[in-house]
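Page 42, continued from yesterday. The earlier attempt failed because a stray header line got pasted into the input along with the sequence. Redoing it now with the clean sequence only.
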Amino acid sequence: MIRPFVAFDYNLNQNLTPYAKRKIKKYFDEISALQARPNYVYRPRSKQRLDSAQRFAQQETALSELTVAFIPTYDDKPRITFNANRELILRTRHVTTHALTLDPARLAIDPLQHVNETIAAIPEANRFTVRAGRYEIPQSHARATLGRFVKFLTDKYNVENNHHYSHWLHGISAHTFTDQQDSRTYIRERNKARAKLKRARAAARRKAARKK
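This time it went through. Structure tokens are written below.
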């Protein structure tokens, strides 16, 4: 069901136009993809905050009538704030996360320098992950090794096709953990949340199959 998340509402008991069917499918496909990871449904009051939240959520498709952001997180009740640049900051029990944007043009010139200059904006961060499209590459990196990993990705995916890094390598998540125990707890809870979501989606598929 997409009705709780969108600004439009069609009467499904009436014959829908081809345009309406295409629109519903477009929104359904994108929302399904965003919900395929553990997430928190965030409903901001202002359009500016919604735009920032959807960028943080790595929403790939522009959906002007989507009224929420599916914030990727493993915490049921994260704290969401915004800095002076209106960028979203996500805080949970164990970690504070900033989303940092990468410029594909600068990555083409010197990925190592660009990454190191980008993460310098969050000096307190102690672990980093790469934001790939609407997903996060689960492998985390220290400040000293992140640039080399991003360079590896740009070297590997530099052939001009749909897999070119400029299509998906747009950001970094900078994580600040209070201590090493928080880092281990975060990883453990992340894995539990993923497993729980996987079981729930499998149960939903079985239920749908039985109804058929």
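Notes: The radius of gyration is 19 Å.
Reminder to self: strip header lines before submitting.
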